[in-house]
From TrEMBL:
Name of the featured protein: Ribonuclease R
Sorted UniProt keywords: Cytoplasm, Exonuclease, Hydrolase, Nuclease, RNA-binding
Signal peptide from the UniProt entry: none
EC number: 3.1.13.1
Similarity-based family: Belongs to the RNR ribonuclease family. RNase R subfamily.
Subcellular location: Cytoplasm
Example GO molecular function: exoribonuclease II activity
Catalysed reaction, written as an equation: Exonucleolytic cleavage in the 3'- to 5'-direction to yield nucleoside 5'-phosphates
Species the sequence originates in: Candidatus Avidehalobacter gallistercoris
Domain S1 motif positions: 554-632
Amino acid sequence: MAKTPHSKPEGRIKQEKARQAKRTVKTNAKAVRPRLHKDGQMSGAHVKRRSSQKLEGYFMTSRKGYGFVRTRNAGWPDIFIAPGNVAGARQYDHVLVKLLTPAEGKKIDKESRLEGVILKVLHHVDEADLLQNDGQDMQMVMWQLGAPGDFPAQVLAEAAAVPQSINRHDLAGRRDYRDYPFVTIDGVDSRDFDDAVFCRREENGNYFLSVQIADVSHYVRPGSALEQEAFARATSTYLPDRVLPMLPVELSNGICSLNAGKNRLTLGCDMEFTPRGKLVRHEIFPAVICVYRRLDYDTVNAILLEHNRKLIAANRDLLPLLKPLAALQGILEKMRTRRGALNFDFPELKVKMSQNGKVAEIVQRRQRLAEKMIEQAMLAANETVAEHFRRLQTPFVYRVHQGPQDEKLTALNTALLAFGYNELGDAKGDVSPREMQKLLKQAAGRPEDEFIQLMALRSMTHAEYSPDCSGHFGLAAKYYCHFTSPIRRYADLAVHRAIKHELVCDDDWLNVRKPGAYMAAAARQSSERERVAEEIEREAVKMKCCLYMREHLGEVFSGKISGMTASGVFVALENGVEGRVAVDELPPDEYNYYAEVMLFKGRTHSFTLGTPLNVRVVKVDLMERRIDFVPA
C-alpha cells in the first residue's frame, strides 16, 4: 500500500454528503469537411447567409435550462440554445434548429459562436430507441461526437469510375513482385488490407523482409473530390458493428485493398536485418504484387503456438515464410527493448456482435505472436521510411511522441515517491525512454504495477503527426512515421505522396503547391481527426458495454478497482467492462482521498488501484453511457 504521510488528502469525504459530479456539455465541434487550398492551408466551411440556415442535430441540455445542438455541418461548432428556445426538447432529442444573429459572408469554423432556436423536435430519443438493435445507438454516438456522414455524391461518382483492375500502363516503372508469395495477416473480420509481407532467411544468416503497402495515391489524385474527402475525414473510424471508412468501398475494399489473388499496385520497402536486428540494407520502390493467401491472426497463432495439425497441413507451403517472420519478430522486439522502447500491457476491449445486431460477448484481447509479427514488420517499415526521408530533408509527415514533462512529470514523481520509488529525470528534468522502461520493469508483478503503468502513461503526451522529426519517446526511435495504412489514414497517404514525388516525380501537384505547407496541414488535420475518431470509438464501445450489462442487472461480478475520483471508484470486471461505485456505497467509514496515489483510506478500510472488489450491477444509463455498481 502507498505511504500516505507524504500525501495530502484532497479533503475528508462524508459519504452521506458526497456530491454528484457536474456534467459538462462539450462545445467544441470538430471540423468534418475542411478544404485544402493551393497554398497547403486548410479552412472550414463558408456560407453566405447564416440567417436562413435550418439544420438538424442532436440536442444536449444543461441543468440551467440552456443547451447546445450538434450538427453534421462541416467545421461548425455546437449551436447555443437559450432556455426559452428549446421547444420542449429533451437530452439527445433529434431536432430542427434555425440560426439566429446573422453575419453575412463570414466563414464558420469551430471557433465561431452560433446561437439558434429549436423549431421542432423531429424525434424524441429514449432508451427504448437504443434497445431496438437497429443501429440507433451508434447513430446517436456518431451525431454527438461529430462522426462523418455519408459520402457526397461527387465522391461516390469518382469512386465508381475508378477501374477495379490494373492495366499495363499502370505497371510502368514498377518492380514486378507477383512471383513472391506475399500474405496478409489481419483480424478475421477485416475487409480492407493495406499491407502484405514476405520474409525469408538468407544464406548469410540475415533476414530479408519485404513490406508491401497499397498504393492509394495512384487512385486518389490531387484536386479530386476523393482527395478532399480523404483529407477531411483523415482516418477511418471503427465501431463495434460498422466501419466509417476514409475512402469509399470501391477503393478501401476494392482496387486499393491487397486482396488475395488480385494484382495490386504497391509501394514497397525491402529490408535486410542481421540476427541482432541491425538494418544493413533497404530499398523503397513502387511495385506490383499478387497476394498469395489471406491469413488471419487466429489461424497463424493456431499454427505457430498451438501446432494445430489441420491448419499446419493446409498452410504447409507457407511455413518457410511464417517461421522466419516469427523469428524476426523476436529479434526486432529484443532490439527495440535494448533501445529503451516501452511496453504497456493493457488489453484491448473487444465487442463481439451477433447476427441479429445484439452484443453477443465482451472480451479482453491481448496481443499474441501473430499480432506481434505484423506489428514488428510495420514498425520496421515505418522507421526505415522515416529515416530515409529525414536524411533527404524531404517535406514529410512524421509520427512524434514526447516523454513526461513539467506538471505531468511532477505528478508522476510525487506518486513514485509515495510508493518508495526514485524520481525520474535528470537535473534538467529530462527523462529517457530507458529510465521509464527501468521503472516499468521495477514495478512489474508488484501490487502497484497497474497504478505505475497508468501514471506513467498519463505523464506522457499523446502521439501526434508533425512536419518536424522530433523522435518517438515510446518507441525510443529517432525517426518514425506512419507509412503502412494509407487506406485508413491520411497521414500515410501524405507520406506516400512524398515518397513518389521523390522517387519517380510523377506527382506534379507537389510541384505547384507548397510541399511544406501541405505536409503541415496534413499533420494538423490527421492529429485532430484522430482524436475525434478515438473518442467516437471509445464511446461506441461504452454504449455496447451498457447494452450488454443491461441484460445482467442484479447480477454479481468479480472485478478490481481501475480508477477513482473524489466521488467514487471505477471497477473493471474480468471481461473489461467498467462501472462506477459511488463513495457513499463503499463500506461505512470516514475516508480521506489521496488523488496523487489514487487511494481512499478510512479508519478500517482502504481502496486503491487494483484492489479486488465484487460488485452488483444496480443501474445502467444508456443515455449517459454509465454503469453503476454497488459492493456485493
